[in-house]
């Protein structure tokens, strides 16, 4: 009489997959809640500089973005390699910025306008000339609150 | 009554996976953060250039950045690693030295009487300065101010600035103002 019988031809039961959809749905909901849909496709390539004294952009709905950097590979033929400004989904000139700011303002509630922030996503190797021009335009448009987008670093190299 | 046949749920997982993959690829998770600054207001057009009152030389901390990303502070070339210390020294004036800015005793609620510096940081960059370098300098200047605020908050309230209440933060901001003025860019050094 042995308690431990050889379980020779007993097969391991298949793992039940009935709960698999539930698990996947849970993941799905997690991603849907935590993320925001990417709204623009970048036409310029940007590697933002690193910094230590960062503030988070709290309300994404109140942020308007200005991208500056050299055009991406497929646009080099038409736009060259010099840094360009991108507003929404297209290349723009410095003089387009006031109109862009006005359009961004018109899209928001009037009560929210004072809290709007302009985020400048500028490539590290851009010359300051273009950034200075953008800043002047923003001052003219009275969009004074800006945020120089940068990556978190413990120490700037 | 006839029983309705059960809907097969074997493909449910596949459908959910498809949705999941779509959402993962279509979204960005990165939290946007950056260096926050407030631009000065555009001066009214009828204002004359010389309307602003003159600021004493000792109260100005001039930071110049040229087209070759060289940094000149108060007339001498320095390395960026030393910028933060220099800025802190300028803003605190620990030895009441003659060529560092004056301080003015001010009564601030909660904190009491504090020596508030009259110093202004003047940052000027060249048209050809690299943006990365410019931001690095800005970062060091903001870091100096933040460190001073943290030090004050720790001695007065025993916690760092970010953890203080709004009232305390206002008081500290008044004691250590962040005055960074940016001049209109000019061409300094280097060929254009």
Describe the structure.
The complex is a heterodimer of chains A (157) and B (192). With 157 residues, chain A is α/β, with parallel strands linked by helices. Chain A contains 4 helices and 9 strands, in the order αββββαββαβαββ. A 5-stranded mixed β-sheet of chain A has the order 6-5-4-7-8, covered by helices on one side. Chain A has a two-stranded parallel ribbon with strand order 2-9. Chain A is elongated, with a radius of gyration of 25 Å. By secondary structure, chain B is of the alpha/beta class. In chain B, strand 3 (60-65) and strand 4 (71-73) form a beta hairpin. In chain B, helix 2 (83-92) crosses helix 3 and helix 3 packs across helix 4 (166-175). Chain B is elongated and about 100 Å long. Chains A and B meet through helix 1, strand 1, strand 3, strand 7 and helix 4 of A and helix 1, strand 1, strand 2 and helix 3 of B. Strand 8 (145-149) of chain A pairs antiparallel with strand 2 (33-38) of chain B, so a sheet runs across the interface.
């Amino acid at each position: 009489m042995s308690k431990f019988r050889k379980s020779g031809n007993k097969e391991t039961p298949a793992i039940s997959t009935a709960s698999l959809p539930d698990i996947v749905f849970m993941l799905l909901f997690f991603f849907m809640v935590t993320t925001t849909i990417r709204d623009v496709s970048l036409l310029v390539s940007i590697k933002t500089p690193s910094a230590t004294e960062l503030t988070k952009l709290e309300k994404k709905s109140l942020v308007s973005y200005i991208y500056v950097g050299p055009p991406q590979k497929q646009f080099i033929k038409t736009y060259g390699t010099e840094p360009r400004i991108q507003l929404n989904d297209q290349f723009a000139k410095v003089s387009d910025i006031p109109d862009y700011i006005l359009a961004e303002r018109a899209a928001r509630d009037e009560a929210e306008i004072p809290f709007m922030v302009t985020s400048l996503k500028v490539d590290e190797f851009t010359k300051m000339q273009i950034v200075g021009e953008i800043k002047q335009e923003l001052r003219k448009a009275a969009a004074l609150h800006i945020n120089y987008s940068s990556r978190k670093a413990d120490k700037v190299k | 009554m006839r029983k309705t046949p059960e809907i097969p749920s074997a493909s449910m997982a596949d459908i959910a996976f498809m949705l999941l993959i779509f959402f993962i690829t279509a979204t960005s998770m990165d939290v946007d953060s950056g260096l926050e600054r407030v631009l000065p207001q555009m001066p009214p057009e009828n204002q004359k250039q010389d309307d602003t009152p003159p600021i004493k030389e000792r109260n100005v901390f001039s930071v110049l950045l040229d087209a070759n990303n060289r940094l000149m502070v108060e007339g001498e070339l320095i390395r960026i690693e030393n910028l933060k210390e220099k800025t802190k020294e300028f803003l605190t004036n620990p030895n009441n030295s003659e060529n560092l800015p004056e301080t003015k005793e001010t009564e601030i609620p909660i904190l009491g009487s504090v020596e508030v510096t009259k110093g202004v940081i003047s940052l000027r960059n060249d048209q050809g300065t690299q943006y990365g370098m410019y931001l690095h300098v800005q970062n060091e200047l903001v870091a100096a101010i933040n460190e001073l605020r943290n030090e004050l908050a720790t001695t007065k309230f025993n916690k760092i600035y970010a953890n203080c209440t709004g009232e305390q933060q206002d008081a500290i901001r008044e004691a250590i103002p962040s005055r960074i003025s940016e001049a209109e860019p000019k061409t300094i050094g280097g060929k254009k």
